[in-house]
Amino acid sequence: MDGGQILLSYIKVWVILLLLSATFPNSKLAAKNTEQDKKRKLAAENSGISIDCGADEDYTDRETGISYKTDKDFISTGKNKVVAPEYNLTTLYYGKMVNSLRIFPEGERNCYTLKPIQGKNQNYYVRAFFRYGNYDSKNQTQIKFDLYIGVNYWATVEETFENKYWINYDIIHYSVTDTIYVCLVNTGFGVPFISGLDLLFMNDSSYRSMNGSLLRRVQADLGGEVSLGTIRYPDDVYARIWQLDVSLTDSVSNISTEAITNIDIQGSDNRCRLPVEVLRTAVQPRNGLKSLSYTYTSPYKENFTPEFLVFFHFAEIEQIAGGKLREFTITLNGLKYGLFTLEYLKPLTIGPYKLQDQEGLVRFSIDASSDLPPILNAFEIFELLPLHDSPTNQTDVDAIMAIKEAYKINRGDWQGDPCLPRTTWTGLQCNNDNPPRIISLNLSSSQLSGNIAVSLLNLTSIKSLDLSNNELTGTVPEAFAQLPNLTILYLSRNKLTGAVPYSLKEKSKSRQLQLSLDGNPDLCKLDTCEKKQGSFPVPVIASVISVSVLLLLSIITIFWRLKRGRLNVPLSSSVGLSLSLKSKNQPFTYTEIVSITNNFQTIIGEGGFGKVYLGNLNDGRQVAVKLLSQSSRQGYKEFLAEVKLLIIVHHRNLVSLVGYCNEQENMALVYEYMANGNLKDHLLENSTNMLNWRARLQIAVDAAQGLEYLHNGCKPPIVHRDLKSSNILLTENLQAKIADFGLSKAFANEGDSHVITDPAGTPGYIDPEYRASGNLNKKSDVYSFGILLCELITGQPPLIRGHQGHTHILQWVSPLVERGDIQSIIDPRLQGEFSTNCAWKALEIALSCVPPTSIQRPDMSDILGELKECLAMEMSSEISMRGSVEMSLVLGTDMAPNLR
Ligand SMILES: *[C@@H]1O[C@H](CO)[C@@H](O)[C@H](O)[C@H]1NC(C)=O
Ligand SMILES: *[C@@H]1O[C@H](CO)[C@@H](O)[C@H](O)[C@H]1NC(C)=O
Ligand SMILES: *[C@@H]1O[C@H](CO)[C@@H](O)[C@H](O)[C@H]1NC(C)=O
Ligand SMILES: *[C@@H]1O[C@H](CO)[C@@H](O)[C@H](O)[C@H]1NC(C)=O
Ligand SMILES: *[C@@H]1O[C@H](CO)[C@@H](O)[C@H](O)[C@H]1NC(C)=O
Ligand SMILES: *[C@@H]1O[C@H](CO)[C@@H](O)[C@H](O)[C@H]1NC(C)=O
Ligand SMILES: *[C@@H]1O[C@H](CO)[C@@H](O)[C@H](O)[C@H]1NC(C)=O
Ligand SMILES: *[C@@H]1O[C@H](CO)[C@@H](O)[C@H](O)[C@H]1NC(C)=O
Fold it and tell me: What is the pTM of this model?
């Protein structure tokens, strides 16, 4: 009998047991319901994924309570099939699951994508079922294909029509990625297929191997009764399938206990969490002999790794007179372990023992060391599967997935890991590093439209990128020049616009980069057009700005030091602002700051460059004092920018500066105090101060007014750059004011856009165009304002946390807008107290602010106009609603007599 036959007969015995178990009344299971319930609960904690491949619909298995899902959320390729009628299994046990299958006639590699909620760096029990079942009526006698877990070889599946039942491969896999791929690879011996796939979270370090995954070879329950069948889910919390092992039958006798509730399975001794049904039976040598022995020969000779892990499981189930204990040693492939002692009703797991054997032989004996014979309740043998290959660098994987998503690339072969095993992704090439990196991407003639995806810039090892012959619009990102190894960049025959970034042209001139740009009629390649667009190298702008800010600040400081307290000239007059208030910017000494804040007693916030304290001026006014933390170099620049701005601009919707302190080491800004904190806190899920719809609209109008003033009321215009709900502060009366101008930039010529090397801002609010190209203008603020409006309307943060990471608020809102489902969009806490018309209008305004390209976004003055209209609409509808309530009350009394 060769290995394959051993395996087949093994499976047959097992299946017969299963068939029997389905026909006998299952007294064992029925006997102990409470115990069962407890385990069901345990099992329920282990929310895994069970897929019935080829099934038409989701269902719950009647016997086990396992919820099977169809393939549809896990794979997009392949075809559903059912087994030939003569193979239709009617037994409950897996019957339904193994009667359907999914086949993969196309593609060299097809992969299931599993995303367990427990995520990466966890242990999982993965099991795949295969059954040919003559689905194609071709009586195939040899189908062979490879199975991969992630990027590593797992097994070679061989199936024939002669096998009535199924084969399953079980593996304990430690996943270093959030996504686990199970791939079927066509090796030229027939169409790959699969019947079922399970994945269970296994929080158990006992089964963890540092050097690979564990292939299950034997999971033997000893001494059980045939009629009680196989033990599995939900008795087993990990859904392991315990096979009744009868290979020792001739030399052993069976023992068991009925005292099942007394076996301490919850204790830490049961570290592999064996079910009580497995532990309550055991074998011992017959006729007073003192030794149990067993031999296993691996039937797998292809891709065989000669390393095994063996676990022995014991529990003393006999109460021995005189309190004597069983003592024994274990000899495994010639090595002796022990002495071991068993205590009554206490589980004991010994192992895992590692061993190597080139012949694939595992031989053990358990030998008594006292006059009591040894017992064995169960054992497990695993083969170690080394994981030689690491999956593709995660940064590259995330980037290529984002690209796939952005351009809706729908290619059957773009599935599984991009680089391994063997690249099957057309247009993509990888290097041989471990982990591999993506080095080449050819998406020419792929009908791509929209901007050049930002994610392309995250493929940091890329050497060659071909995007020619598509419909790409927008500008060429300068950041391409920062990809160190990029030597080929083909962008010809697209609809790109703007100027070609200087640095790319330089690289091309110096022959570091083959740049091709032909066939983009609106793209300006001349040097002059760059000058015209004012995009001279960024460091120059940055240093000019910081030098002038420094200059300005020192002039101001000297000015104030000289004239302290006497002169009150509004510096802002140079900007041509109408000032209703006199400038109250007043310099403070550090000692004064200490006294104002009562020695920094009360912290009321934490800003971009340090903590914010509550303070009291002599005249009784409350102020907020922002102290620059001394470690913050970045903060110093922001501090200067903010001072520079706030001493020249004043508006009722911008937070105003009361004074500042600039004494070398100690710098602080003193603002008017905003009693109601920031908008973000008001919108938090657990906020106690719920803002009603009208208040939200008013806040939107206020913020729009502040921003409109920065953009259109200031010369030069000012771009805030970090507009977000935590930068909108609220007064006692909920009047909104914009704060935190640390990142803002003023631009000498209106209409200019500037290239910034370090796109700053807050995730969720950053204009995607600005992030991609570094081109900054007023429209970047408009985008952030749109997000802010969405936040006000929906009550959701810009990045909504979920199981699979974050969802951007726009991704969340878009499908709801398409469905016209305004009720699900509007913050449920408003409980319907808003007029639907007004809500739609507000949403429309919000969405008009966020198209991907800045040209499509309106100016703040238009947005302000629309928002004011919206607010007016809401106010009038509130009035008419109140009116109609009164009306119906009147009608109610009028109609009452008629009803009688
Ligand atoms: C298999 O048999 C069951 C019960 O007789 C039946 O409901 C089911 O449709 C059959 N399935 C196939 C694939 O023939
Ligand atoms: C398949 O085998 C069955 C009996 O085993 C036979 O009746 C049938 O003709 C065979 N079909 C083909 C296509 O060979
Ligand atoms: C895994 O088990 C340990 C110990 O039982 C527990 O502390 C830990 O929280 C568990 N982890 C998960 C993710 O369930
Ligand atoms: C992993 O393998 C290395 C050598 O390949 C070995 O030194 C190490 O002991 C192994 N670690 C474990 C936990 O088996
Ligand atoms: C022990 O149990 C196995 C499986 O039920 C059975 O085949 C065997 O005959 C039993 N042995 C004895 C000695 O009863
Ligand atoms: C993947 O690539 C990124 C970017 O080059 C790098 O920072 C990271 O260390 C790489 N990860 C691994 C596991 O090599
Ligand atoms: C680029 O990679 C960085 C770091 O890995 C990540 O934070 C960012 O979201 C990625 N950007 C895109 C557009 O994929
Ligand atoms: C660029 O190529 C060089 C040489 O092949 C290599 O050493 C380096 O790691 C590559 N850089 C990146 C970011 O992949």
Answer: 0.59
